[in-house]
Every structure is written in structure tokens, then in C-alpha cells.
Amino acid sequence: MAQAFQPPPTPYVRPAPPRYKPGSVASIALIFTGFFVFMFGTLAAALTGIVHPALVAGLGFVIMASGGAVMAMVDSGQERPVPAPPAVQSPPPAGPQAPRGSIEIPCPNCGAPPQNVDRFGVATCGYCQTRFLVH
User: Fold this and answer.
1) In sequence order, what DSSP letters do the residues of 69-89 get, joined into one string?
2) How confident is the model over 56-92, as pLDDT tens digits?
3) Which residue segment(s) compose the domain that 65 sits in?
4) Does residue 59 sit within a domain?
5) Does 69 share its domain with 110?
């Protein structure tokens, strides 16, 4: 008996959050509407004489202010997560160490590693006290 083909199960994927909050879009729409009422409604009221232009200007201002209030209320108040600061590397251990990428030049007399290297690059062997250049 043949088995029916069943597609593999698809994993649950969380839907992406909306790109814009609806309240933000509404607040911007109110602000622009209020601006156009304030600017062009006042002109239309002055030309037609049906309503006093100051009333239309006040209405436009109130619509803009309500858009600003809606925008203030839309803010969720949630803080965006701040990434953790980078981990601080521990300081190098104290004591004499060779700089990274350097090589040790052994004593030409006995082959021991150099001990005291002065600022001119002259080392003194700690075993046989021979002085040699390590540049």
C-alpha cells in the first residue's frame, strides 16, 4: 500500500513587527491635515466669507496640536536595548616577556637567552656575563 506524500513540517517563524505604527501614521496625517486647513482653509474662508478666517486658522491649529498629542501617546515608552560594552581584555601578566612577533637571540658565547637588554639593544647574558647586540 502506497503512502501519501506529506510535505515536511515548516518551522514556526515569528512574524516581523510592522514597519510603522498605525498611531504614528495617523498622527502625521493629522499634522499635515491641520497644516493644510490652517494655510489653505484660511485663504478659502477669506475668499468665500462663509466662515471667519480666524476660526478656520484656529481649527487648523487644533488639528495640528491633536496630531502632536497622538504622536506623543504612540510612543511605547520601551527603551531600546543597548548592546553590552565590549569585553575588556585582561592586562598582560607582569614580568619580562618578549614582544609579540620578536625572536630571542641567544648568547653567542654560551647559548643562554639574553637577560638585561638596555635601550641601545645591548644585552648582558645572565649566565656568562657576555655583552652582545640584539638588534
Assistant:
1) HHHHHH---PPPPPPPPPPPP
2) 999 999 999 999 999 888 876 666 677 777 766 666 6
3) 22-74
4) yes
5) no
